[in-house]
Amino acid sequence: MDFITAERICLSCVRSVGKVVGKIGGQDPISKFGIEDTSAIEDLVNRIVTDQDMGVPSAKHKVDPNRLRVSSTTTFAQLEQMIVENSLPA
Amino acid sequence: MKTVCLHKKGVWKYLLSVNPWLCACLFAVISMAGSGACFGQSITDVSSAHTPTGWQIQVLLSDSLGKGPGTCKIVDLARTRDLNLESCSTSVIGNVVAIQVAPSEPMTSDVPYLVALSNLDFTDPARHVEVLVKLVKVPKSVAPESEKSPTGSETGHSSVSNSPCLLSRFGQIARAKLGSASGRDDSNLYFSGQITHSSGQDFEGSYDVKADLSGRCLIANTVHLIGPVLDLKGGSDPNTTPDSLNFALQWEFPLVSPREAPISSIRLAQFAKLETTDDFLQRNIIYNADLRGVFRPWIFNSASTIRAHLRPVVGVETGKNLRSIAPQLDGNGIARLKAGTSFFLIFDLGKPGLQDVTFETNYDRRWPLLNEIRLVRSQSGVTEIFSGTNPRDYVRQTVAIGLTKFVAINVAYEYGSLPPVYQFVDNKFTFGISLRAAFPK
């Protein structure tokens, strides 16, 4: 998985679970997109791990959900890196 | 590590191309002199990941680029040579540059590397920068389980936990991998100590502890949250909810997750829990099933610093009383319907000493279908025991002022009653400090 693909996945999933107003920066925490409580964070992880159209499976990869250590302070760039680091070909 | 903006044409690019060591030395001297970035634009972070296709380097810039960098270079300072790169491109979001290093290039944690981006055209503010450089080291990492050889040798890839999904949080605690959280709900570990003042009473102390150690398990292509959760509330205030201990096994997953709807998901949260006072005089064993609506957030300004969330809940609680302080209810069955909502309003200030201000309202109403205990403390200080099926309300309004990422000041208002003994709380105000932590990256 490369960073450009990971970014496409992050953008789609963050937009799907949260709300994006204005420009996204790599340093923005996901709380800026309204993903900041357990339910929203778990929805984001579920989307990244399982969604066939916008998640990691859409890139023919898989990822262990426990490797995505996401909290409200995780930045967009960190989320990308988690996906790149932990994705394996399906 | 400071980043230097090398904007003087020619000299720095020439030094970088012919003698990266000299460039790195000058860079170090300038960094120590505190010159910083010349125009404000800089490389704010560089991260790396080893993948089956080789090392990937992610360069985070302070501002967005209008177009991709002219050239990217990674210099191995130990061998004084450029690494072969497969690609270098700007991402859609603009301030991230992704570099793919050729698979044949080994990068090791004991070698410093110089990452250099040249011919950068920034937007907002529009500015051309000749070269930005940053010294980096790649992390020492181990292979995921699926990539390990039978002998367990390392291949340079990041690791995957080999513990069962239910126990993944325990491993994180053992490795002390904790980060900050935004509140009680977001926290895996939470402690709040409070000083309480109720009407007509002296100041008393109370505490609120939460430990959520549930792990994520992938079942039928859905991420399920399964594991133990502990809630402990107590203190010395006789006029408030008595010490209570909830030890539960949680199983939560999304039932539906529509893509284009105001609601992001409807989650089914099930708990098998022991609901007790801390002296175990009142004990209930409860099965709790909640349907929680996760609405998409409301964002009220362009900087996304003012946000609101709504989480309505309906559910049932059934079980059996194991021991009651009211003998006539000892061993009774328990059946309750429940409805409620949580609403959060967050002002994300992000200033040193004032990170955020959060207003949180929680409301729950329970309808016991079978007789349950209820404690009411009279003005004379005598606690009276009632039983019945009348609805029990509970509302809690909290204002949390985040001083740092981990520490917040709480002011809270409570009214109503909660299981297991439904001690009625009449207009209780609390003031305290909370520590909050989550399991992040």
Give a quick rundown of the structure:
The complex is a heterodimer of chains A (90) and B (441). Chain A has 90 residues and is mostly helical.
Key terms for this structure?
heterodimer; A: 90 residues; Non-ribosomal Peptide Synthetase Peptidyl Carrier Protein, Chain A; 43% helix; 7% strand; B: 441 residues; mainly beta; Immunoglobulin-like; 2 domains; twelve-stranded antiparallel beta barrel; five-stranded antiparallel sheet
Please explain how this structure is put together.
The complex is a heterodimer of chains A (90) and B (441). Chain A has 3 helices and 2 strands. The mean pLDDT of chain A is 91. In chain A, helix 1 packs across helix 2 (38-50) and helix 1 packs across helix 3. With 90 residues, chain A is mainly alpha-helical. Chain A has a two-stranded antiparallel ribbon. Helices cover 43% and strands 7% of the residues of chain A. Chain A has a single domain (3-89), classed as Non-ribosomal Peptide Synthetase Peptidyl Carrier Protein, Chain A. With 441 residues, chain B is mainly beta. Chain B folds into 2 domains: 4-136, Immunoglobulin-like (Sandwich); 165-438, Porin, CATH 2.40.160.40. Chain B contains 3 helices and 26 strands. Chain B has helices spanning 11-18, 20-33, 168-174, and strands at 4-6, 43-51, 54-61, 71-76, 81-82, 85-90, 96-101, 113-122, 127-136, 179-180, 189-197, 204-212, 215-219, 222-235, 244-256, 263-277, 283-295, 298-299, 306-323, 333-351, 354-368, 372-377, 383-388, 392-402, 407-416, 425-438. In chain B, the strands form 4 sheets. Chain B has a 12-stranded antiparallel β-barrel with strand order 11-12-14-15-16-17-19-20-21-24-25-26. In chain B, helix 1 packs across helix 2. The longest helix of chain B is centred in the first third of the chain and has 14 residues, at 20-33. Mean pLDDT of chain B is 79; it is low at 1-5, 32-37 and 142-161. The chains are: A mainly alpha (90), B mainly beta (441). Chains A and B meet through helix 1, helix 2, helix 3 and strand 2 of A and strand 2, strand 3, strand 7, strand 10 and strand 13 of B.
